[in-house]
Amino acid sequence: MNKVKISSNAGILVMLLLLSTAQPKPCPPCLCEQQEDLRGWILNCSSMGLKEMPPLSSELCHSCHTINILHLQNNSLTTVPLGALDNLIYLKEVDFSNNPWHCDCSILYFKQWLEDFSNASLANLQCASPASVKSRALSQLTGNELEGCRKPQPIKCLDFFWRDFALIFVAIIVLILARCILQYSKKLTSQAARKLHPFEVPLLQIHDLEKQKSK
Ligand SMILES: *[C@@H]1O[C@H](CO)[C@@H](O)[C@H](O)[C@H]1NC(C)=O
Ligand SMILES: *[C@@H]1O[C@H](CO)[C@@H](O)[C@H](O)[C@H]1NC(C)=O
Ligand SMILES: *[C@@H]1O[C@H](CO)[C@@H](O)[C@H](O)[C@H]1NC(C)=O
């Protein structure tokens, strides 16, 4: 009895899934409109209270990638996920103004995409949060001012500092040791020379004498 119930539930689920995938979803919840000159498509997602980017690059959004104009102004967007705009290869115009952008490190993708695409559409974007950059223009912010971008760097720097410091320290010790060994060996050879020649003839002369002998 239970088994039958489960399988019928599963059947309904599969039916629902089939229904939901079978129906075409033209870029929900935005409006797809043809341009007046019929040259391309406008995806109008403006003033829709969106809190997240609509899935422009996903399978859910049939032929969204062919749009030429994208309107996302006057929503509640705080960020654009990494790669979300990469598939829009026919895009000519965008409007992202009037959204409460959260300008932390994760907005870098969006900022760099816009810098590449059009400085003009980046110019009128303002950060709404975090507090440190509230009301600042997104275009004016550097990576260092975006929260979360800067933190890992000092740790790395410190790592480098200690590694270099250790290397330099080891190098100095090796140099000092080498110098000591050199001095000690010099001392030994001069002592040996003195033993060979009690009248303290400089080494060079001994060398010369030996040369003459061999001739
Ligand atoms: C986009 O849609 C909004 C309503 O959701 C409408 O007011 C606006 O005029 C449309 N914009 C364009 C360019 O069609
Ligand atoms: C912005 O969107 C809200 C609804 O989310 C709407 O009431 C308002 O009129 C829109 N403003 C502009 C300037 O389009
Ligand atoms: C956008 O602005 C930046 C700096 O403000 C500049 O380096 C870059 O060349 C500009 N890009 C375009 C396409 O105008």
From TrEMBL:
The keyword Transmembrane applies. It is found in: Membrane. It is a single-pass membrane protein. The chain crosses the membrane at residues 160-182. Keywords: Cell adhesion, Disulfide bond, Leucine-rich repeat, Membrane, Signal, Transmembrane, Transmembrane helix. Residues 99-150 form the LRRCT domain. Residues 1-24 form the signal peptide. InterPro entries: Cys-rich_flank_reg_C, GPIb-IX-V_Complex, LRR_dom_sf. Its main location: membrane. SUPFAM superfamilies: L domain-like. PANTHER family: GLYCOPROTEIN IB BETA, PLATELET GLYCOPROTEIN IX. This is LRRCT domain-containing protein. It comes from Podarcis lilfordi.
